[in-house]
Amino acid sequence: MEETIGVTSAAQIPKQRGEALQDSAVRYAEERHWDVFPGAWLESVDGTWRCSCENAACPAPGAHPVRDDWPTQATGSATVARRLWAKQPNASILLPTGRTFDAIDVPETAGFLALARMERMELTLGPVTCTPDRRMQFFVLPGAAAKVPDLVRKLGWPPATLDLVTLGEGAYVAAPPTRFGASGAVQWACRPTAANRWLPDAEEIISPLAYSCGREARRR
Fold first, then answer.
1. pLDDT band at residue 96 under the 50/70/90 scheme
2. Are 107 and 136 in contact (CB under 8 A)?
3. pLDDT at residue 57 above 60?
4. I need a surface site. Which of 28, 60, 141, 166 has the fewest CB within 10 A?
């Protein structure tokens, strides 16, 4: 059941399933003040889901930008977002990083291990997405991309040995309920609420993330 914290905060965040992409995009812009832009979409061809880009080998079917100038298309206006998705209601919802947030991207197994450690440490988390390609993105304050490598080194981990990527300016994440081909939809591992409107700094959560990624690396 959907959480109901206040009238215009968590109650207005898109549900995991069953809500129109346009409504979700509008609410991200209106309630969280996140920039949004429409990406590719899925089309049914002979009973098979294909990406609108028409690339049969598309690595992220229905979940990537369709224009090279997508950074200029991203908007924080709910009115503009509604108009953009009215043109293509099935377009994926993409959120540019490096603006209101950066995202630390890790494998799903490491992400859930890190979540458990963060809970024990009583750390305050921002929103966290879980994608069908088994990745998780932890939303943190902007600027993380520049300092995460040094933070990881200070913790004793060579950055190149960890499957941990920070998405900042020029990158993006897909937001629920965007679908990745037939694999399923992006979901919230930690949904946006009134309690996590203020994002953590990368330095606050990098230790459990690096540890969890390091543990996964040793298992390979």
1. very high
2. yes
3. yes
4. 141
